[in-house]
Amino acid sequence: MVGLVVGLTLAVVAAGIFGGLAGAGAFGSDTDDAGTPTVTGPVAGIPAEYVGAILSAGRTCATLSPGLLAAQLKQESGFDPDARSGVGAVGIAQFMPATWSAHGVDGNGDGRADPLDPADAIPAAARYDCAVATAVARVPGDPVRLMLAAYNAGPGAVLATGGVPPYAETQKYVAVIIAGAAGMTAALDSATATANAAGTVTGVAIAFARQQLGKPYRLGATGPDRWDCSSLVQAAYRAAGITLPRTTYDQAGQSGPSIAIGDVDRWQPGDLLFAAGSDGTPDNPGHVGLYLGNRQVLHAPKTGDVVKIVTLDHYEKVTGVTRPAALAP
């Protein structure tokens, strides 16, 4: 549970720390091979629809990892987006209302931050993890243990006690998550390796794109530390030996054969999904993403956001699909 109330004195201390933490900004279009397997089922008990969000958000800071975040969400709610505790914590990440008010994010860009929506709650949990890790960084000890303790009991409790607080719930929370993280990490790594299908054209492109998760969007950027949507897919396919045009507008007509947009079942991992974006039109799209299969899309969304994986429901309306893998020699 986020921000466990552990007594009046520590609650007052924690309130001061929470007030001093920077708000967790929202995770934020490019204005400026058939048959490759993907992650289509649960991974180590993680529902498939949350795998992409966990892989994306788990790279928010050095103290966190996808496996650790997955173990934390399992401990918080058992991956239940509708979970509610007796003291008022809600959602897959079990945010208390006051903590969500200060640190909730609009992870899917739908205009609202909802702790009951995993697309918002998962990146918010990661951002909050990283915020409290920073807040308790001066406390001696394992930074991962301190981060988890601060997430559960509040950073004020960690600062006041000089380490993991001596509360049975918090100590069990930290131990269970750390014990489960290794298995989650191994399972996610294995699933990702299988999904990437190393050695295939789309496998190489997807593997490259996954390595860019968490890097900031910048209009006109061409890597390696910042990308816009079209430079990201261009670089991904360049790694696989296929040359694509630089801009979305050109890619829409020069990145392989068109695939019918009406039948999602015909789309394959590695296909490019085009959308109008902020400065294009359905006929002249300004945004592009890389389809991963299982209704998941990897893309660089917009200024203020980062390279991430979203479900198709949280991607823009698709107006065109192409298959660059068909251009392979």
CATH topology of the largest domain: Lysozyme
Structural class assignment: alpha+beta
CATH class of the largest domain: Mainly Alpha
Give the total of beta strands: 5
SSE arrangement:
Blueprint: H1 8-20, H2 48-57, H3 66-77, H4 97-103, H5 118-135, H6 143-153, H7 155-161, H8 168-196, H9 201-210, H10 229-239, H11 248-251, E1 272-275, E2 287-293, E3 296-299, E4 308-311, E5 320-322
Antiparallel strand pairs: 1-2, 1-5, 2-3, 3-4
Helix pairs in contact: 1-7, 2-3, 2-5, 3-8, 5-6, 6-7, 6-8, 8-9, 9-10
Notable traits:
single chain; 329 residues; alpha+beta; Lysozyme; endopeptidase fold (from Nostoc punctiforme); 2 domains; 11 helices; 5 strands; 7% strand; elongated
Describe it.
The protein has helices at residues 8-20, 48-57, 66-77, 97-103, 118-135, 143-153, 155-161, 168-196, 201-210, 229-239, 248-251; strands at 272-275, 287-293, 296-299, 308-311, 320-322. The termini are far apart. It is α+β, with helices and mostly antiparallel strands. The protein folds into 2 domains: 8-28 and 33-196, Orthogonal Bundle (Lysozyme); 201-327, endopeptidase fold (from Nostoc punctiforme). It is 40% helix and 7% strand.
